[in-house]
Task: structure prediction
Amino acid sequence: QLQASGGGLVQAGGSLRLSCAAPGRTFSLYAKGWFRQAPGKEREFVAAITWSGSSTYYADSVKGRFTISRDNAKNTVYLQMNTLKPEDTAVYYCAARSAVDTTTPRSWGSWGQGTEFTVSS
Result:
C-alpha cells in the first residue's frame, strides 16, 4: 500500500508538499497518481506522473499551481501545492497504475491511507 503524508492546516495562498512512499522497488516501475476527496464529494483525479517521470498530467483545477514529481531512488512521489485555495481542502490519496491511460480513480490501485489538509480562508 502507498502511504501519503504531509497534510495539515495551511492558509489560503500558502504552499504545502505531500509525499507518497511506495514500499518495494517494483513500485518504481509504476505510474503514480494523486487523487483527492472532499467531504460529501466523490474522489477525483489531481495529478499523475509516468514511471520515468518524463510525463505529467494535471486536472484543470490545479494546473499551474500543483507540481507532481518523483524520486525512484527513494520510492517516493511528491505533490508540491502552491497558491492553495479553500476548495483544495480534502483528503489526498496516492495510487499506482501500470500507465497513465486513465484518470478514473476506480481504475487505479494500491490505495493506502490518505493525508488530510485544510486550507483556511
In short: The chain is about 0% helix and 45% strand. The beta strands are 3-5, 9-11, 16-21, 31-37, 44-49, 56-58, 66-71, 76-81, 90-97, 115-120. The chain has a mean pLDDT of 93.
